[in-house]
Amino acid sequence: MSEEGLKVAEDKMRAEGVADVAIDSFAHYYRQLEGGETGMIREADIEPVADLPTADDLGEPPDRGAVLGKAVMIKLNGGLGTSMGMTKAKSLLEVKDGLTFIDIIVRQATDLGVPLVLMNSFATRDDTMAFIGDRHPDADVDDFLQNKEPKIGVDDLTPVQWPDDPDLEWCPPGHGDLYVALQTSGMLESLLDRGVEAAFVSNSDNLGAVLDPRILHHFLDSGAPFLMEVVPRTPADRKGGHLARRKEDGRLVLRETAQTDDEDLEALQDTSRHRYSNTNNLWVNLVALDQVLRERSGVLGLPIIVNRKTVDPGDKSTPEVFQLETAMGAAISVFEGAEAIEVSRHRFAPVKTTNDLLVLRSDFYALTDSGHVEPAGDREPGSILVDLDPDHYKLLADFDARFPAGAPSLVECTCFVVRGDVTFGPEVAVRGEAELEAE
Pick from 54, 169, 258, 408: CA 20 to 30 A from residue 12's CA? Predict the structure, then answer.
């Protein structure tokens, strides 16, 4: 049944106009699923990573303009912000001083004088590019589309059918699809033709991820094909993935929680053993990427992540499906000579929840003319904990309704917890540790 299932999946993707290389990549992971591959990385097969070089020790490039002329900023922009109840591109959310993620990212790229390229999904492309055309018509911005693949039924390994909402039959292949999509879209060839050698890749919801000319110069000078920015893990990172070194060949690998057996979870969560967390800020040598993709016929062979979900994520009673995904950071194990560098937490401040959004909108962060979002005074990212009651603040509409006058002052706050339904008026300041509980 599974061989028939693969053919049905390939035909379905081809009918949707998915590129042959992307179909071949899907088939590679389908066969791994069929063969029982889980993508698990055993603790016995890896070892901790010792001290890494730090970005703080890097000097300015001798010719800043020449170095920047070889670079592009690529932002992953395929998310809809559904966890916050959004139905459009998350990057179009207003986050600071009346500006959206996209407004600030365009400002960052324009200030540096480097092109900006977005990896959009079918769900985000139209809204995002129309917004940029209206607000930033002269900006050097382009985009390419992330691929899509069918969800696979757990029972028979065939593409799931869901006539009530055919869009639910499809899923993105994870952000590891970046490399295939760059090639199949023609964007990789276009960038190389422009003389671009290095791509700085990051998430659009992480405004701390600004292309740093010092790291760019270090990356190009090192000759490494791939560089991952990491930060020291804190207790807050203990349940997330980490960097490790594979015993078999000494290569760096990224292990996600979904790739960890239950018996190894204690080791995964030991931040004194596995000390570095991936920021998803990555540097990719495009010449090396083009060579590897050609050698492997477009199939990089990233470690598979098998996500088991329901066809309708909002309805747990719907049939179970497999979503075959890969992580773009996992490419660190594919490129021989790939490296990692420790960076400041200033470069890692993603907005995943309304808790994060409140901090970003508040005076805890300041926005510079060049688009840098920096903590005010001597504060450090992560030095504040905000925990809003999810029953009343998780969804953006509910969150906005309870902060009609904007975010309270948090510049002197270390911990802010709200339980129950509280609406905040103007000129509210939170200092030190504060907890509110509504009856």
Answer: 258
- Is the same domain home to 167 and 276? yes
Which CB contacts under 8 angstroms, 24+ apart, belong to 311-314?
A: 311/151, 311/160, 311/162, 311/168, 311/169, 312/162, 312/165, 312/168
CA distances for 129 relative to 84, 91, 136, 418, angstroms: 22, 11, 10, 37
Residue 245 has a CB neighbour count (10 Å cut-off) of 17
Read off the pTM: 0.93
What count of residues does the chain have?
439
What is the C-alpha to C-alpha distance for residues 250 and 424, in angstroms, rounded to an integer? 53
Count CB atoms within 10 A of the CB of residue 177.
Answer: 28
Domain end point (choices 300, 331, 347): 347
| Structure letter (DSSP) for residue 304 | P
User: How much is the pLDDT for 238?
Assistant: 83
Encode pLDDT of 394-416 as tens digits: 999 999 999 999 999 999 999 99
What are the pLDDT digits (tens) for 2-17?
Answer: 678 999 999 999 999 9
pLDDT surpasses 60 at 1 = no
